[in-house]
Amino acid sequence: MDILNELIMQAIASPWLYLVLFAVTVIDGFFPPVPSETVLVAAAAVAASTGDGILLLLGLVAAVGAAIGDNLAFLIGRRLGTSRFAWMRRPRVVTAFAYAQRALDRRSATLILGARYIPVGRVAVNMSAGALGFPWRRFLPLSLIAGASWSIFSLAIGLLAGAWIKDQPLLSALLGIGVALVIGVVVDRIAAARRRRAPVAHLAG
Q1: Distance (Å, rounded) from C-alpha 197 to C-alpha 148?
Q2: Most C-beta atoms within 10 A of its C-beta, which of 16, 93, 127, 180?
Q3: Measured between alpha carbons, how far is 79 from 108 in angstroms, rounded to an integer?
Q4: In sequence order, what DSSP letters do the residues of 34-86 get, joined into one string?
């Protein structure tokens, strides 16, 4: 345990941490399997546990990377559509795209801001926004707000985990990741339930 804690401390203190965090948050904007939340929450939990003053920089790097990633997804949607690649044609992703396309016209701000917290959902919404010709001048400020709010929320999870377990960066990181995963599952379930209700409401109307 002590060896692992020392390795984590070295990783957090390394200047490469910010580059890695920036890279994963950008890539996660258009490729959901990359675990940007995990990296940010773990880094924040360790920083809070050890008292290292890097939280503000972590949050800023993550917010900027997230906004860039979301805008790249928007541009990919504008250029390529939403069915070019095999992973886009998976049932869950297709369902997310269909929901995003139906909802963009009615509540674009709520959808873009809320989707930032759902890995597959944010890619579907942002690519759909690009593919459907949603104005970029409206998308850009929403993506900046979404990236900042997501970064603050992830930092808060890490801070709570770090505060509960002092001087144990490995346990703090694991606790933070666990909390983030639970919240992610809850958000996914809520989003899925809303997608199932949407066709029923449409038929009833």
Answers
A1: 30
A2: 127
A3: 20
A4: S-HHHHHHHHHHHHHHHT-S-HHHHHHHHHHHHHHHHHHHHHHHHHH-SSSSG
Average the pLDDT over 12-38 and give the result: 82
d(C-alpha 175, C-alpha 187), whole Å = 18
In terms of Cα–Cα distance, which of 29, 55, 27, 30 is closest to 42?
Answer: 55
Q: In this structure, are residues 10 and 43 in contact, taking their beta carbons and an 8 Å threshold?
A: no
Q: What is the pTM of this model?
A: 0.71
Report residue 98's pLDDT band, with 50, 70 and 90 as the boundaries: confident
CA distance 36 to 50: 21
